[in-house]
Amino acid sequence: MDITLSEDIDAEYLEDVADILTNKEFLALNSYRHHVATTRLMHSINVSYISWLTAKKLGCDAQAAARAGLLHDFFLYDPREGRPSRELQAFCHPKVAARTSGETFEISEKERDAILSHMFPLGPLPKSREAWIISGADKICACAEVFHITIALARDGRVAVSPA
């Protein structure tokens, strides 16, 4: 599976997340439907890019926001077919995503916390401004996706995923 990104996407953003966007295991998120109208990969890219832009505007750690935004839903199972614990998906998947992210990539403690707390208020209280940004961006993207509104990088073919 390969990903092609539009030339108008900021090069600094792409540099911050290149190792993730070229990882075959991460790109497998494209095979999971998410929030009715998108894939988990596209949702994660949107959360990441909105988080990166917001963090830059607010003077936060944009790289940590971009990386944690990409990885916040990095779990490789379909919750409709079962999950790895008896917890509800809202509580289970941040833990699985944090574990999978740590096993696959080098992530900072700030990135790990943002992944674990992105479901606030259903999960733990975010500990950093970047974690708050990701939690908010996730909710904005989820609402848009449920109502079939294309936002951020989902618009105008700015991201294309194709089989390798």
From TrEMBL:
InterPro entries: HD/PDEase_dom, HD_domain. It comes from the Bacteria. Residues 36-152 form the HD/PDEase domain. This is HD domain-containing protein. It holds the Pfam family HD. It comes from Eisenbergiella porci.
